[in-house]
Design goal:
The chain is α+β, with helices and mostly antiparallel strands and about 290 residues long. About 45% of the residues lie in helices and about 20% in strands. Keywords: DNA-binding, Transcription, Transcription regulation.
Length: about 290
């Protein structure tokens, strides 16, 4: 069997006992910004101890049963629908609780791996749980099956799937007692629809937005920051800028003053200054690009 720089398909699996699947990808040679080093499923997870950690980022999740993991004096429980992401070199040990523990693991690296995770708000040891019916629940197993049958020798498809997997951790994972982003967005859905329909009303402010959901202004901003990384009013301004760009490109005879009024600005100079600050060009300069 040919051994290429992408995947040794089936070779590692042939050496493993029943109930195990494992694949190694050699994408590091291809200089991808984010790549999977290995991925596997263990139907009978054994105890593992790594005083020096693992050289790559290491994701471990429970598929069935229950396990535990300890790292630097901190103990983590791993029942079903939970997972842990460890940074490279993080000392750890783990094992099963009870009679069985079925796990899925992914190890990955890449020159942009740290920056990508940082942009998603992922750092240090991340312990997450998720709802059993969400996209994240079966994503790892689907990725394993994809790699098992992937004919792509470039590693680009696996890298793209890994990035999606990380975004699903961000979207559906709950950590530190906080709700997941998907739950927050669902909670905000009525207000987001209200904003889409009333962005042109200059009288909309934080008070009106909070009243639309029947919550406090402070809690409203907490939900928006957890979901979008910005306040509710900043999100409204972003929405107005998006609508302004759509108007200016679809209706070229609209003046800048008319556009400003249609997207909720009482003062055209404020609109121009806000547009330039967020988009890097004036509205007139933006329109010339299209």
């Amino acid at each position: 069997m040919e051994q290429d720089s992408h995947l040794i398909s089936g070779l590692e699996e042939w050496h493993l006992p029943p109930g195990h699947r494992r694949y190694f990808l050699y994408s590091k040679e291809l200089r991808l910004p984010l790549f999977i080093e290995s991925i596997g499923w263990n139907g009978r997870q054994e105890n593992v101890e790594r005083p020096g950690g693992y050289p790559c980022y290491h994701w471990l999740q429970t598929v069935k049963g229950r396990g535990w993991l300890q790292s630097e004096g901190v103990a983590y429980e791993l029942p079903e629908h939970t997972g842990l992401l460890l940074p490279p070199g993080q000392p750890h040990q783990y094992g099963k609780e009870g009679s069985e523990w079925e796990t899925l693991y992914i190890t990955f690296s890449g020159p942009q791996a740290a920056d990508i995770q940082s942009s998603l708000g992922i750092s240090g040891v991340l312990s997450v749980e998720w709802d059993p019916d969400c996209e994240l629940d079966n994503c790892g197993m689907h990725l394993l099956d994809f790699i098992a049958g992937d004919p792509d020798r470039s590693g680009l498809d696996a890298s793209a799937h890994l990035y999606r997997f990380l975004t699903l951790i961000k979207k559906h994972g709950r950590s530190g007692g906080l709700a997941s982003i998907s739950h927050n967005v669902e909670r905000l859905a009525p207000l987001l629809a209200f904003m889409e329909n009333h962005y042109g009303d200059p009288g909309i402010g934080l008070q009106e937005m909070a009243a639309a959901l029947g919550i406090s202004q402070r809690y409203l901003n907490i939900l928006f920051k957890q979901s979008f990384g910005m306040t509710a009013y900043a999100y409204l301004i972003m929405l107005r800028m998006r609508k302004a760009k759509e108007l200016m490109t679809a209706h070229r005879k609209l003046s800048i003053k008319e556009t400003a009024s249609l997207v909720g600005f009482r003062d055209v100079s404020h609109f121009v200054a806000t547009f330039r600050r967020l988009e890097g060009v004036t509205p007139e300069q933006f329109r010339t690009l299209y």
